[in-house]
Sequence to fold (327 residues):
Amino acid sequence: MAGLGVWIMAFISLCSLNVSALLQRLHHPVKADGSLSLVVIGDWGRKGTYNQSEVAAQMGRVAEKLNIDFVISTGDNFYDDGLTGINDPAFELSFSKIYTAKSLQKQWYNVLGNHDYRGDVEAQLSPILQKIDPRWICKRSFIVDTEIAEFFFVDTTPFVDKYFLKPKDHKYDWRGVLPREKYLSKLLKDLEIALKGSSANWKIVVGHHPIRSIGHHGDTQELIRQLLPILEANDVDMYINGHDHCLEHIISRSSQIQFLTSGGGSKAWKGDTDNNRKDGAKFYYDGQGFMSVELEQTNAKVVYYDIFGKVLHVVNLSKELRSAYAI
Fold:
């Protein structure tokens, strides 16, 4: 872990965007050949149960083969109700002691899920957790900037009306979010500015909730209304999410966006799919697993794996180089 700490100091720099007070930018280097590889996991934190440990083991094997640069978590990092505080043992029991493979000792970029908002959100966001495990970076919304791709992490939970209007017996930690309308307005504005200003050849947006899904939760209508038009207007290539406990690939009928769900990090929902919403669906798997992404300047490869490391689905994308200057 000490070596990782030195690596972070040497290669990861954090600064505020000069056009945005909300989004922060992290810089992550690519490989010597200019390529980038990573794995994506979502909906995982169950202290090793529901096959979380088995999925983690396969992630480690794939990560070693690909020599990954970092890991993305699509949220719901700690079940059922987030962390109770910075000293909650669940952080190590569900994270540090599960993802132990040498190949996974890389930076983890995490977004918050709705279950995370049921606990102490400030604990997950606290830099104190990095002293416990220096891999951990969790923020509400931020950017990871690499030479060939920019990853725009978006805090999607505050968009969803039912968490505010019909929370049932759940209590959500809305510190830093209220007033909600102002928070969402600023987030969308800052995201739009950042996307318009990006000249990266690959623009990838990451959130917890799906925009399109044929799984248990289905499409997130609030994101379709408020977020999707911004992504379509700014040539986003991929939207990566969790929330539905499955793996799926859906193509857009109106843009180039690939909707990629990686929410099979632990407990899965077998047979829970809506056959009436299959428009654009290319792949759906109602079991546990994860996803890998390999990026080159003009080519991308996305691979879905099950709990045994079996390849379930492959997405190959190609494109021309963007202009060096954003318009």
